[in-house]
Write a structure and sequence with these properties.
Layout: H1 2-21, H2 46-63, H3 72-85, H4 108-121, H5 123-149, H6 152-165, H7 167-170, H8 176-199, H9 209-226, H10 230-252, H11 255-260, H12 262-277, H13 286-295, H14 314-332, H15 339-354, H16 359-381, H17 383-386, H18 412-427, H19 433-436, H20 443-447, H21 453-461, E1 467-469, H22 475-481, E2 487-488, H23 499-509, H24 515-521, E3 524-530, H25 535-543, E4 547-552, E5 556-561, H26 564-569, E6 577-578
Length: 580
């Protein structure tokens, strides 16, 4: 037994030594091995995080802009009729005194979009549409600036400055928002083409030109149906054409060189393509005629946004500050201004001084022109901080942990931070409410304090009969929220109001001589007064024996014509309904 036991122990020790001597099995080189690796290009820096935070804050801020009682509601009413009747109105459907005036509705597609969105999600959906439109517009502007600076933070800062310059035109929801988005897209295409040409070693590099050959006709075909400002896009293309002509003339000193220059011919072809794409609308050539005629309408001269720029207005100071900044850049930057940028700045700057409503277009041109020069100043002033390190500090890394090294300053933590910022911005926006829940916005927060909501609630219970004299700027809101039908005197579509009717409106609301007989001539039965801006009209109506005050709140007053028998006997006026 002892011999057998010894032999057994010997065999076990031999087997153990053999097992220990065999190296651990390694996968064959032919076996696939899946290793999760995230590209280092997704590792961001603190600058990306700062840029994301600014755009996130902008997204949240845009979501809380109220739907004020502006021309949005008139466009919405037009859009409802377009969807219901499957046709574009030939007369103003909410302004009876404009009957017979020719209608060329260049914003019919915007109006249909507004109506469809409102029917699908209510007024809160309009806030989401506005937020996405403006946010994408300035995201495109930032991307265009980035193509010239290669700095996400710097591009975002310049874009936010442009946002401040044009804020007076952006904070109101109207079809022009869609036009500004298309303008930003056109800028992105043109600047991208210029950057590729400047960075290319080839004399005639056509890489990426397919974007313009496809993008330009799509942009202008949409533009001609969304808003009548497509001339701004044509003007921008013209600035780039003129800029290229000037560059060739300056460099070659020859007209023949201009005619033979392929870039000049290419830009000319794109201008022709854009002009042809505008014709893709229900009115074809009449779209050009109407856009010109609209801008020359005399009634529009009485509206602030069509007035020349003034330093008494915030927009005037913003424009002046932008001009001073351009002067400093011209003096300090060593990088020459592109001829196309100079042409665009001069044209849109002049347009903004002549008409306040052009400040939003100028702001985007300003950002694209200023960005490369701001980058030049920052690069020279902060060269020691802006220069990237070429070597990574040596660290002890295990052979098995073959993690890819990241450039200095880049980290996936910043990437997670950017994702977190985007989620927070979405969570605090109106778009998240259907998914995440939350209390709906109050009417005051949704429609703003300027919208006469108490007045509308009273009118719904006491609908007026006959002709109504209303504040023109409340007309669209009353058409959407008020009782139907209501014979409003004027809306924001004053270009459709006959000139004599518009002059009579001004005479009545400003109580010029003959204002009372004008009320009689139009057979006005109800007068709605804005207490803040039409106090003189309210005082005059109070002294008139034919009128009585039937309603008032802190914002509005309503006067109605007395019956003839009552006015002749000078009966005591009934106590008006008050709402405080």
């Amino acid at each position: 037994m002892s011999t057998e036991h010894a032999m057994s122990d010997s065999l076990e020790r031999s087997a153990t030594s053999v097992v220990d001597a065999v190296p651990p099995s390694r996968p064959s080189s032919l076996d696939p091995e899946l290793i999760p690796v995230l590209s280092s290009r997704w590792a961001l820096t603190w600058k990306h995080l700062a840029a994301t935070a600014m755009f996130g804050a902008l997204f949240v801020f845009l979501n809380h802009i109220p739907l004020r009682g502006t021309d949005l509601w008139g466009h919405l009413e037009w859009g409802k009729r377009i969807l219901a009747e499957r046709s574009i109105p030939t007369e103003d459907p909410i302004q009876p005194l404009a009957v017979g005036m020719q209608v060329v509705d260049l914003s019919w597609l915007s109006q249909a979009i507004y109506a469809a969105v409102e029917q699908a999600g209510g007024p809160i959906a309009l806030v989401g549409l506005f937020t996405l439109t403006v946010w994408l517009t300035y995201l495109l502007v930032a991307r265009t600036c980035y193509l010239q600076t290669r700095s996400a933070l710097l591009s975002t800062v310049v874009t936010m400055a442009a946002l401040g310059i044009g804020w007076s035109r952006i904070s109101t929801i109207r079809p022009e928002n869609f036009a500004l988005l298309l303008f930003a897209a056109l800028l992105w295409l043109l600047v991208g083409r210029r950057v590729r040409r400047d960075e290319s070693v080839l004399a005639d590099d056509t890489r990426g030109d397919w974007r313009l050959w496809l993008g330009i006709p799509v942009i202008f075909a949409l533009w001609a149906n969304l808003h009548g400002s497509f001339f701004c896009g044509l003007a921008l293309l013209g600035c780039y054409l003129v800029g290229r002509v000037c560059e060739v003339l300056w460099n070659e000193r020859s007209v023949r060189a201009v005619l033979l220059d392929r870039e000049v011919r290419r830009l000319l072809y794109w201008c022709e393509l854009a002009a042809a794409a505008v014709l893709v609308n229900p009115y074809t050539m009449d779209a050009y005629v109407e856009a010109i005629r609209f801008s020359q309408n005399l009634n529009l001269r009485d509206v602030l946004e069509w007035a020349p720029l003034s330093l008494r207005l915030p927009a005037g100071w913003e424009f002046a500050a932008s001009v001073v900044a351009l002067g400093l850049l011209l003096r300090l930057s060593k990088r020459p201004f592109a001829a196309a940028d100079v042409a665009a700045l001069l044209l849109f700057g002049l347009a903004a001084t002549l008409q306040l409503r052009m400040i939003g277009w100028f702001a985007m041109v300003w950002a694209v022109a200023a960005a490369p020069h701001v980058a030049d100043l920052v690069t020279r002033w902060l060269a020691d901080r802006a220069a990237r390190r070429k070597h990574v500090a040596e660290t002890n890394v295990d052979v098995d942990d073959e993690a890819p090294s990241l450039p200095v300053g880049h980290s996936f933590r910043y990437t997670l931070g950017c994702l977190g910022v985007l989620w927070i911005a979405f969570a605090f926006s109106s778009l998240s409410r259907p998914l995440l829940g939350g209390a709906p916005r109050t009417p005051e927060a949704l429609f703003g304090e300027q919208s006469p909501q108490q007045l509308v609630a009273w009118l719904q219970k006491n609908p007026p009969t006959g002709q109504v004299l209303n504040p023109q700027y409340w007309g669209d809101w009353l058409a959407w929220a008020g009782p139907k039908p209501m014979q409003l005197f004027a809306t924001t579509n004053i270009h459709l109001t006959p000139r004599s009717v518009w002059q009579d409106y001004g005479r009545m609301v400003s109580t010029q001589p003959g204002w009372d007989t004008t009320l009689d001539r139009y057979r006005v039965q109800t007068v709605i007064v804005d207490r803040a801006l039409q106090a003189q009209l309210a005082r005059s109506l109070r002294t008139e024996p034919n009128w009585m005050l039937v309603y008032e709140d802190p914002q509005a007053q309503v006067f109605r014509r007395k019956p003839k028998a009552e006015s002749s006997t000078k009966a005591a006026e009934p106590k008006p309904t008050a709402c405080h």
